[in-house]
Amino acid sequence: MHAEPVTARDSSVAPTPALRADARRNRERIVEAARVVFAEQGLGASMNEVARRAGVGLATLLRRFPSRDLLVAAALGDRMGEFAALVERALDDPDPWNGFCWLVHRICAMQAGDRGFTEVLTQAFPGAGEFEELREQSYRRTVELFDRAKDAGVLRLDFSPHDFPMLLMANAGVVTATAGLAPTTSPRLIAYLLQAFSTASAPLPEPPTFEEMTEVLNRYEPPRP
Fold first, then answer.
1. Rounded Cα distance, 140 and 74, in Å
2. What is the distance between the alpha carbons of residues 133 and 144, in angstroms, rounded to a whole number?
3. Is the pLDDT of residue 4 over 50?
4. What's the pLDDT tens digit per position in 66-104?
5. By three-state DSSP, how is residue 67 classified?
6. Is 201 helix (H, G, I), strand (E, B) or coil?
7. Distance separating alpha carbons of residues 170 and 147, to the nearest angstrom
8. Is the pLDDT of residue 225 over 70?
9. Is residue 71 a contact partner of residue 65, using CB atoms and an 8 Å limit?
10. In terms of C-beta density within 10 A (0-12 exposed, 13-18 middle, 19 or more buried), how is residue 209 classed?
11. 2, 44, 93, 209: which is deepest, by most CB within 10 A?
């Protein structure tokens, strides 16, 4: 009895799962490399550098992630989810001031060693669908936290939502300048700012306009170490 000949169609069946596995591994390497590179260099880091760290060609990276927004969403989706969860936990605190202060401390602590996280909170990502929706929703919920603290009489009425990214930018600069040298500097800055945000403090100058702050956030790049 003669064995049936192997046709071209038969020979193409077995390798297909392996190709899918290779593609999946490439994607995982790219996402992990992007997390590290964005944390070190910020979201404007070279796509070539991400590809090099992942051990793939730039063409492979762009095939998996044809836009920077999609790569950012894949690399920092977990961090954005963590931020959203922290906002909800702060809103659940029955003490509005405790919730506000707790959130500020936690978010500023997340900035340490992660430039990408700072930038993801102060930029928009219109090409990243669900990621951008979560970022916008988290921002709206953060504003609810601010309003709740104002209604309770513990957060000054002239506190602007734009003061929050201002705080993050200030802390990012301090974290970068003091990393590994003076670790108590950032908590001290945050303590000063929280005292300034309370109703017991003196009046503030007028906040920047929405248009001014939008332009700042669009151009903002944390200081490089």
1. 22
2. 17
3. no
4. 999 999 999 999 999 999 999 999 999 999 999 999 999
5. coil
6. coil
7. 22
8. no
9. yes
10. exposed
11. 93
Cα gap 38→46, rounded to integer Å: 9
Q: How much is the pTM?
A: 0.77
Helix, strand, coil percentages in the chain from 3-state DSSP, rounded to 5: 70, 0, 30
Q: Both tokens of residue 92?
A: 């659940």
Determine phi and psi for 198, rounding to 5 degrees: -75, 160
Domain boundaries along the sequence of the chain = 15-66, 76-219
Better-predicted residue by pLDDT, 216 or 44: 44
d(CA 205, CA 185): 25
In this predicted structure, the answer to whether residue 20 has a pLDDT above a threshold of 90 is no
What does the block give as tokens for 137?
């929703």
Q: How far apart are CA 157 and CA 198, in angstroms?
A: 9
Q: How many CB atoms lie within 10 A of CB 164?
A: 21
DSSP codes, 29-53: HHHHHHHHHHHHH-TT--HHHHHHH
Q: What's the CATH class of domain 76-219?
A: mainly alpha
- CATH code of the domain occupying 15-66: 1.10.10
Q: State the amino acid at position 93 in one-letter form.
A: D
Distances, alpha carbon 125 to alpha carbons 54, 73, 111, 141, in Å: 23, 8, 19, 18
